[in-house]
Amino acid sequence: MTSTWHRDTLSIDQKLALKTAAGNLGREFDGIFGVETIERFLHSSYDDFAGRAVIMNYLPLLAERFARQRLRALAKVEGKALTGTPVVLFLCTHNAGRSQMALGFFTHLAGDRALAWSGGSEPAGTINPAAIEAMAERGIDISGEYPKPWTDEIVRAADVVITMGCGDACPVFPGRRYEEWVLDDPAGKTIDEIRPVRDQIEHRVRNLLTEITAPGPV
Length: 218
Hints:
- This protein is α/β, with parallel strands linked by helices.
- It contains seven helices and four strands.
- The chain has two domains: 74 residues, Orthogonal Bundle (Helicase, Ruva Protein, domain 3); 135 residues, Rossmann fold (3-Layer(aba) Sandwich), CATH 3.40.50.
- Helix 4 links the parallel strand 1 and strand 2.
């Protein structure tokens, strides 16, 4: 197994946290994936965040969360987790504003009826603070989220892919439903300027959720 991260550069706390993360994932995916696959996903997830981390102490936790999402996606793709729950993927450039607000609304409104993920073609270091504030006005806390990339298994596991300005960088896989939502980028905008974008996203998310969770013909 090759990796760009180096154990000798990690603190003792980071090494312990990664070992704990590997144990957590190993128990969760026992009988689904082997140790080698789990560690590969954990380490590659760590690598991704290490290059743009703001607070290094959070890296093992972020790596564990992202690796868990990727492993769940892979399980669906490989037919090892057929729940029948619709999966929506929201994609934008930095995964710091539009796609995070869409994820926040969708998760809040969907409950256990559907699942949503988000990602960016060029993930930022942090979530847009004004986007966090705008969502808080709706009673939705997205401050615990984090910008992340998309991966092949995540896109392949999605039933619906919503793109928001990532253009040609957005991935295209056969068999998925794609929609482009034309929305202003909240980057650099004030809270007053972001509110209309937020409200458009809420309206679109509500319509999408109603559509994909509507019962089919008897």
